[in-house]
Design goal:
With 150 residues, the chain is α+β, with helices and mostly antiparallel strands. It folds into 2 domains: 40 residues; 90 residues, Immunoglobulins (Immunoglobulin-like, Sandwich), CATH 2.60.40.10. It is 21% helix and 41% strand. The protein has a 5-stranded mixed β-sheet with strand order 2-8-7-4-5, with no helix packed on it. The model has no long low-confidence stretch (mean pLDDT 85).
Length: 150
């Protein structure tokens, strides 16, 4: 072990210590290093986190016009009306004729006007669906059957 008064032992130790202090100060000045150290030393307990209640209740929707079992004319305009409610709020109602989306409405009363599809037959059965959505993307739907004639 070198003694303090032997050739250069003290100056080298001082230089090494000084370089280490300067390097630590330089590294600790970067935001990411500082943030990482503080987040580990002073993290907030997870019990402080506030969670919102989960909305799992589906909206209710009912087609009020036309009535289930109605007969409509091919090529005519079909006016569809639906009412919808939800415990939090309805964000939109989509209207389908068959499997085809024909309208979307975001304000109550929910309405849609669409042309009844024409086919090369004298009559056919189809259905109309009103599908309501809430902010949590829960859905509720009501389906009615229609007969389309020429």
């Amino acid at each position: 072990m070198p003694k303090l008064n032997e050739r250069g032992a003290v100056p080298i130790l001082i230089i090494v210590a000084a370089v280490g202090v300067v390097a630590f100060i330089a590294i600790s000045q970067t935001a990411s290093f500082r943030d990482r150290i503080f987040s580990q030393l002073f993290s907030k307990p997870s019990s402080y986190a506030i969670s919102e209640p989960i909305d799992s209740i589906r909206p209710r929707v009912s087609i009020t016009s036309p009535l289930d079992g109605s007969t409509v004319t091919m090529g005519s305009t079909l006016n569809i009306t639906a009412s919808a409610t939800d415990n939090v709020g309805v964000s939109k109602v989509e209207f389908y004729i068959g499997n085809r989306l024909v309208c979307t409405d975001t304000t109550s009363p929910y309405n849609c006007s669409s042309v009844v599809p024409t086919r090369a037959v004298t009559s056919y059965s189809t259905f109309v669906v009103a599908r309501a959505y809430d902010a949590a993307n829960n859905t509720g739907q009501h389906r009615i059957k229609l007969t389309a004639v020429k």
